[in-house]
Amino acid sequence: MRILLGIVIGLVAVLAITFVVGLLLPRGHTASSRITLKSAPAQVWPVVRDLSSLVGTWSDLKSARRVPDANGREVWEQSAGGFDMRLIVEEVTEPTRMLTRIDTPPGAAFGGTWTYQVEPSGPGTQVTITENGYVSNPIFRVMMAVMGVHRTADGYLKALGKKLGEEVTAEHVGKSVSR
Q1: CA 72 to CA 85: how far, in whole Å?
Q2: Is the alpha carbon torsion for 75, 66, 30, 104 positive or negative?
Q3: Which among 72, 79, 104, 76 has a CA at the least distance from the CA of 88?
Q4: pTM
Q5: Do 102 and 86 meet the contact criterion of CB atoms below 8 Å apart?
Q6: How far is CA 96 from the centre of its chain?
Q7: d(CA 156, CA 82)
Q8: Domain ranges for the chain
Q9: Rounded Cα–Cα distance for residues 39 and 41 (Å)
Q10: What are the b/e assignments for 4-41, b being 16+ CB within 10 Å?
Q11: Which DSSP letter does residue 161 get?
Q12: pLDDT tens digits, residue range 47-86?
């Protein structure tokens, strides 16, 4: 019985310490990652623009579908990274830029925007993703700090390369945190 009690107390202590550390970490962050592809922008943009195109290629993205919206917005429902979420396409400048925002209720554990930038780079294309996000839950902040703020964007970019038949490595071009 003492051993079990010791294990429980130890787990509670680890959780409490993790929570306190999470409170000390910044809530907001900005992180940019980019890749350079051999494919031309005309091949890349349609894949970027279709938020369901990487289902089956990006292991984090389990499903994605466009859904009707009473306000006439472009809205997608995705299951990604273990979370079900709604994405709103806020802005599109064909064929170079798209801004999406996670549609989160007040008090959500996390949220923010992704800006997709598609630019010619020699005969190929450079794709940059900039995440402006926040993590409200202190435990999730610790998880993000351990896994890295670039993890999700890097995964997306690698899957984009794979979808286009290319092996790519994401380059981190910016990271900042704020309170």
Answers
A1: 18
A2: positive
A3: 76
A4: 0.87
A5: yes
A6: 19
A7: 15
A8: 26-178
A9: 7
A10: eeeeeeeeeeeeeeeeeebeebebebbbbbbbbbebeb
A11: H
A12: 999 999 999 999 999 999 999 998 999 999 999 988 899 9
Distance CA 146, CA 153 (A): 15
CATH number assigned to the domain with residue range 26-178, chosen from the 4 options 3.30.870.10, 3.40.50.2300, 3.40.50.300, 3.30.530.20: 3.30.530.20
Instruction: Report CA-CA distances (Å) from 10 to 5, 16, 91, 104.
Output: 8, 10, 48, 34
Return the beta strands (E) in 38-109 as ranges. Answer: 61-67, 74-80, 83-93, 97-102
Instruction: Compute the distance between CA of residue 91 and CA of residue 95 in angstroms, rounded to an integer.
Output: 12
What is the Cα gyration radius of the chain? 19
d(CA 133, CA 170): 19
8 A C-beta contact, residue 3 and residue 148: no
Q: What is the pLDDT of residues 117-142, one digit of tens each?
A: 999 999 999 999 999 999 988 988 88
